[in-house]
Amino acid sequence: MTRFTVNNQPVEYKLDPRTPLLWALRDASNLTGTKYGCGTGDCGACTVDIDGAAVRSCQMTIAQAEGTFVTTIEGLAQESNHPVQQALIAGNVVQCGYCIPGIVMSAAALLRKNRNPSDEEIAGAITNLCRCGIYPRLVEAIGRAARVARGEEEIVLDRRETAASEEPAQD
Asked: Where is the 2Fe-2S ferredoxin-type domain (predicted)?
């Protein structure tokens, strides 16, 4: 049995220890916000936060996660009110949405380590792939999220924008 914490809840998986963390989260814990993209760690759709670092969950086994603290997109903010989520919504960055949970988790980890990243640092840290090509708006939105997190800016979302963004993406 493998034990670690997911979204501040202790979990114990009775799965093969070689099971990729991605599949334990999606199949055993029903946390489907973490997406399967490529299975090779290249696209970043499966990115989660493990002990403060952005990690591609398809490349980590549950045995390797033993004793760690894992945060998925579902555990990042109760009402999608993390500064990165707010900035992506306000900047109208999200298109199809499939890559967004992994991007949000990568950006949140970046901002925890660097409260004032340059555009180059953002581009270097967000290596997630997006087929919709949101990169210019994405860098701008993450910069805005950093300002919000530092208390230099506030985002007030229209309730209709927030409701539209909360519609579940197709798995």
From this structure: 1-76
- Both 91 and 107 in one domain: the answer is yes
Q: Please report where in the chains the tokens 């992506």 appear, as a residue.
A: 88
Q: Domain with 105 in it: what CATH number?
A: 1.10.150.120
Q: Which residue has the tokens 């901002």?
A: 111
Overall residue count recorded for the chain in this entry = 171
| Domain span at 58 | 2-76
pTM (global) more than 0.85: yes
Statement to judge: residues 159 and 125 lie in one domain:
yes
131 vs 93: CA distance, rounded Å: 13
| 160 and 113 part of one domain | yes
Residues 53 and 111 in one domain: no
What is the DSSP pairing of strand 9-13 with strand 69-71? unpaired
| In contact, 32 and 100? CB cutoff 8 Å | no
Rg of the chain on CA atoms, in Å: 16
What's the rounded Cα separation, in Å, for the pair 23 and 144?
33
At 137, list the tokens: 């708006």
- Which DSSP symbol is given to 58? G
